[in-house]
Amino acid sequence: MSTPRRRSRSTAIAVLAVFALAVPAVAGPPLLCHPFDIGNARSLPWDGTRAFWQGRADYRIENLVADTDALLTPSTPVIVRMETLRRAALYASADGEVAARLYARFGERLQASQKPGGRPDDLALFDFGYLTETYRQIAELDRGVSDFRGRAPALRKTIGTTNGYTLIKKALGQPTTDPAMEFAAALMTGRRDDGAYRVHADRARAGASRDALLARNLNYIS
């Protein structure tokens, strides 16, 4: 009989195999497979001892939308936003209705931040874009990872044709860019060879001295 540890290892290998088939250079789903180091910052309850997608068994998913919304305030650092959205997306992906409600909430936040005659708030752009691409990567796991089988149709329907990277590029289109957002953009573009990854990664490294949490996670783009 296989043990939980062996089953977990086999599933993790399957995750890597799925992404190796999709993009030869990738080591795994970059927005998902590495929990971000957020120190003592507040985020959603999490376990993660056996697999990167393992949330707390006792977490009440009906609270997910409100909990995530409350955690991502204007003062929440970008790296904490990334880890919170990673956890939220993994929880939500198990229930198509919850996934749609979470996505709708962040779409509402984006619309509400739109300034008359101007552009939406950068953090609202970032959150919605990051959630979009996290859902997209979870949907890709449907192809070969049994824990995610059947989740892709609802997630793909939810995000539709939205391009999360395009939204994040809008947030970065300012004279002074946020190095942590550049880090997120690097993770999104590392699986293709169009030069964008290097630009974003270089900017993230250049600004890491100004962001302690970013500095703790730079190894993911090294």
Outline the fold blueprint.
Blueprint: H1 4-22, H2 64-71, H3 78-92, H4 96-112, H5 122-140, H6 152-159, H7 164-172, H8 179-189, H9 196-207, H10 212-217
Q: Please report the number of helical segments.
A: 10
Question: How can the largest sheet be summarized?
Answer: none
Distance between the termini: 39 Å
Rg, Å, rounded: 17 Å
What is the global morphology?
A: globular
Supply the helix-strand structural class. mainly alpha
Give the DSSP E fraction (strand runs of 2 or more residues): under 5%
| Element-level helix/strand string | HHHHHHHHHH
Number of strand segments? 0
Overall number of structural domains: 1
Mean pLDDT: 88
Low-pLDDT runs: 4-26
Helicity, as a percent range: 55-70%
